[in-house]
Structures are given as structure tokens and as C-alpha cells.
């Protein structure tokens, strides 16, 4: 299945608003891939399919996860809005024929991040946060930084996510904290090596 066919199929799976967001993510992800010389095909697939599991309500999500034996961690199981990454990776495999592990990982972890992200994973994570439809304080700064320094943008994005989740009094996924600490340590090691 090519990207045009996938896009048409996806249009039938998502609300108009979610599809528009997805096209915005795809657009900015392509520009980031060019800027950072990332694998364009992997970035396009990951960005296009990142939210393919998002438009299920909690009951549908729970039933779908159970029926397909999708493995969720404890936090995802308690906060099903975080499960759409795992569900999306499963749908990408089963409904869209995606077999590439990096693409599936980018879809799986596009909401929380993870330790030692590849550039494809970082680009999809950031594109989801900075696409043109996003309106929140600081988004323009993050957009600009995303095209200047990928790792600094990822760090700022993690910081913003952590502050937002805390302000909502929700459970913060430990994967985000671990990913933030990992990238911060990498940046500090690079500065120390200079």
C-alpha cells in the first residue's frame, strides 16, 4: 500500500479534525526530515499513521486492546488516552502492512517519548506538538527551535509536557521522565566532550 492509498484509508478511519491534524503533522514532519537528513519514507509513514488509533472512545479502546492482546504498561492501562500509540502501532501493522520496527516505534512512542530516540522518532514526536493547528503558549518558540536544534527542541517539548501533565493533576508517564533525563545527559556529555 502506498502513502496515497494509506491516506485515503486513514480518512475513513478518523474524524475530519483528526485527519486535518494528521496532515499537519505529516507536512511539518517532512520539513523536519529534510532539515535533519532523516529517512523521508519512514518519517512520512510514522507521521501519517501516528494517530490512526486515536479516534476510539475509552470503551472501544479497552475492548480493542483486550481482543487483540495488545500489551500496555500499567500507566497506559489506567490512562487509556496514552494507549493510542500502542493501538496505532498495531493498526499500522495489521491494517496498513507496516513492518518497519523504527516506524512502529515512532508511532508507539509519539506521545510519551522514550529513552534513546532515533531522529525519525524525535521528528514525529515534535511534529505532533508543533503542527500549524496547535495553539498553546510557547508553541512558536518550540517550532523555531525544532528547526535549529532537534535535541534542544525535544528537551523543551518534554519539559512542556511534564509541566502540562502536572498542571492537569494526571499521572506522568515515567517513560517521559526517563526520555528527558536521557536526552539531557546526552547533551551534557556532548558539551563536556568539547
TrEMBL record:
<dbReference type="InterPro" id="IPR051094">
    <property type="entry name" value="Diverse_Catalytic_Enzymes"/>
</dbReference>
<dbReference type="InterPro" id="IPR006675">
    <property type="entry name" value="HDIG_dom"/>
</dbReference>
<keyword id="KW-0547">Nucleotide-binding</keyword>
<dbReference type="GO" id="GO:0000166">
    <property type="term" value="F:nucleotide binding"/>
</dbReference>
<dbReference type="InterPro" id="IPR006674">
    <property type="entry name" value="HD_domain"/>
</dbReference>
<keyword id="KW-0378">Hydrolase</keyword>
<dbReference type="GO" id="GO:0046872">
    <property type="term" value="F:metal ion binding"/>
</dbReference>
<protein>
    <recommendedName>
        <fullName>bis(5'-nucleosyl)-tetraphosphatase (symmetrical)</fullName>
        <ecNumber>3.6.1.41</ecNumber>
    </recommendedName>
</protein>
<dbReference type="InterPro" id="IPR003607">
    <property type="entry name" value="HD/PDEase_dom"/>
</dbReference>
<feature type="domain" description="HD">
    <location>
        <begin position="18"/>
        <end position="133"/>
    </location>
</feature>
<keyword id="KW-0479">Metal-binding</keyword>
<dbReference type="InterPro" id="IPR005249">
    <property type="entry name" value="YqeK"/>
</dbReference>
<keyword id="KW-0408">Iron</keyword>
<dbReference type="GO" id="GO:0008803">
    <property type="term" value="F:bis(5'-nucleosyl)-tetraphosphatase (symmetrical) activity"/>
</dbReference>
<dbReference type="Pfam" id="PF01966">
    <property type="entry name" value="HD"/>
</dbReference>
